[in-house]
Amino acid sequence: MACSSAAVYGSIAHCPGDIIAPGVRATVWFIPQADIASWPTADPKKGNYGESGQFTLVEGKKWYTIKGMKSQGNATAEPVGEKPAKSFDVTLNVFVPGLKDEVIAWANQASNDDLVFAYQQADGTIRIVGHEYGECNVNPSMATGSGSGDQVGETCAITCNMPYQPLSVSGIAALGAIDEGK
Questions:
Q1: What is the pTM assigned to this prediction?
Q2: Mean pLDDT of all residues in the chain?
Q3: According to a count of CB atoms within 10 Å of the terminal CB, is the N or C end of the chain lower?
Q4: CA–CA distance, 56 with 53 (Å, rounded to integer)
């Protein structure tokens, strides 16, 4: 039997003058892994969770919202391992401004919990960091600043080893219920 991944390949074009905005938008969503009843079907060969794919959440559970600073967010994915078992070390960096008690409490809990994150690229695409069979680590770093113009808040490096780069969902509705907060 002949195997081929050629169906994945096709021409990729970038047109001169197309603008590709960097970064992550200011809102990031998260949910404890245990609050996800079922995941949409991943389709790494298409780079997404499928057009009709939606998360099914445990009854009464919602994704929570972090509203951060746009200029501080970015995501990276670096390959690790050898063929045919390569995976990706994915890092999502998010800055949560301020040091209110709720920010400190979140950082303390998140650093020891198993959370899944959704972020929105500058172009509006929503991607997922986390997967059904793994866990993410949240590594918060607090800074009080020392003078005017310094950042005050939590810089969170969210890391996850994933079998593929972060896949997209068809839109915000694919996440399910969302708690927008205050």
A1: 0.88
A2: 87
A3: N
A4: 10
Give first-to-last CA distance, the chain, whole Å. 57
pLDDT in tens, 33-66: 999 999 999 888 888 887 777 999 999 999 999 8
DSSP letters, the chain, are -----GGG-------TT-----SEEEEEEEEEGGGEEEPPPPBTTTTBS-TT---EEPTT--EEEEE--GGG-EEEEEEES-TTS-EEEEEEEEEEE---HHHHHHHHHHTTS-EEEEEEETTS-EEEE--TT--EEEEEEEE--SSTT---EEEEEEEEEESSSPPEESSGGGG--EE---
